[in-house]
Amino acid sequence: xxxxxxxxxxxxxxxxxxxxxxxxxxxxxxxxxxxxxxxxxxxxxxxxxxxxxxxxxxxxxxxxxxxxxxxxxxxxxxxxxxxxxxxxxxxxxxxxxxxxxxxxxxxxxxxxxxxxxxxxxxxxxxxxxxxxxxxxxxxxxxxxxx
Length: 146
Ligand SMILES: [Zn+2]
Ligand SMILES: [Zn+2]
What we know:
Elements: H1 2-11, H2 14-45, H3 49-58, H4 60-70, H5 76-94, E1 123-124, E2 131-132
Antiparallel strand pairs: 1-2
This protein binds zinc ion (2 copies).
């Protein structure tokens, strides 16, 4: 009976009570940090942050699990970045998809020189001064032999 006696003594000892209190404290801190995490995560994803924090606080485990399932899959910043990328590609397509071969920045079709790195993109016709591609033998606009 000594063994059980010592177990019972342990459970009623101040050390055990301290352990229980520490456990409660830990659970409470975890609870608060999960609520804070839910709030900032929902905000970054454009979900209803305030609403989800309340749900998480009222239903600690179930609420957070449901939030993890139904939360928007992407961060707002990622979506915005992708939209900017698409817009940049559209601009590139609209001006004929011309890109400087040296610095790869978008340039207009009739640029003679890259405004970013000063690479010569085209030469101008000595007669009509329209932009010509570097390999051309004759100006297609005014028939000037180059
Ligand atoms: Zn360039
Ligand atoms: Zn010409």
